Amino acid sequence: MKRFINCIVISSIVFISACKYTTPPEMLMGKWYVSSVKANGHEMIHDYLDQNTRYLVFNEEGTYQVGLLDSVSEKAWMINPDRNELIMMHGSPFNDIKTWNVKASDELIYLTDKTNHFNITLNRKKKLPKIEITEDNALIGKWVIDKMTVNGYDNTDKYAFPKRWILLADNGRFYNGNDTGDQNVGYWKTNSSLTQVGFYDQKDHEEPFITFNIASNSIWYEKQNDDHNNPQVRVYFKKLE
């Protein structure tokens, strides 16, 4: 009897091990958050994605969305279950690679390119976060100092320039000044994912002289310094209604 049971157990193990791993398309459908992008073993997520583009949505009708602001509906995806191969026919956020080896569970997706250079981890999300600012025009207007933090702590009452403001005009110009009349003029534009505003001395300059981050209904910048021992100072602006 014991020998018979052992045979059943061994047979079951052999049967299970003989089952080939496959990834059905239903396992990929839904909303996903990109939690890791490793290139040759090094974490590189910030080189490829920002707070609005760290999302992938695989729709049931065979289209996919990259990022929260993606409105292009003709991007198509398909999966070859027997080969565990995901094909993003219009490329992906990672060097525009179209074909990926894929392993998936209910809550995780692992993507690897054919050369094993990229290793991507995605976590399932029930819903995507809401974006307050979804177009450039929402930034147009006058922005005033709202808050200043030092190492994350509110230090607004110690800020030396509480009356400064920035006016973002609809012609791409900005005006920055204070109540004393001191004023700077230049140009502004956002990045494609609406997560940053760059300020330029000249319209055709490629690199901004300062960059603000867009977060919810505020814009903010961090004062740069080369000494990591110096405090982290951030200045937040809010838009006047």
Outline the fold blueprint:
Layout: H1 2-18, E1 30-39, E2 42-43, H2 45-48, E3 55-58, E4 64-66, E5 77-80, E6 85-88, E7 99-104, E8 108-113, E9 118-125, E10 141-150, E11 153-154, E12 165-168, E13 173-177, E14 183-190, E15 196-200, E16 210-215, E17 218-222, E18 233-239
Antiparallel strand pairs: 1-2, 1-3, 1-9, 3-4, 5-6, 6-7, 7-8, 8-9, 10-11, 10-12, 10-18, 12-13, 13-14, 14-15, 15-16, 16-17, 17-18
Organism: Marivirga salinarum
Protein name: Lipocalin-like domain-containing protein
What would a concise description of this structure say?
By secondary structure, the protein is mainly beta. The protein has two helices and 18 strands.
Percent of sequence in beta strands: 35-45%
Gross geometry: elongated
Please name the CATH architecture of the largest domain: Beta Barrel
Number of domains: 2
Helix percent reads under 10%
SSE series: HEEHEEEEEEEEEEEEEEEE
Number of helices, where a helix is a run of at least 4 consecutive DSSP H or I residues? 2
Radius of gyration: 25 Å
Uncertain spans: 7-18
The biggest beta sheet reads: 9 strands, antiparallel
Mean pLDDT: 88
Query: What separation lies between the terminal Cα atoms?
Result: 82 Å
Report the CATH topology name of the largest domain.
Lipocalin
Q: What is the top-level CATH class of the largest domain?
A: Mainly Beta
- Give the tally of β-strands: 18
Summing up helix and strand content along with how strands pair, one would put the structural category as mainly beta
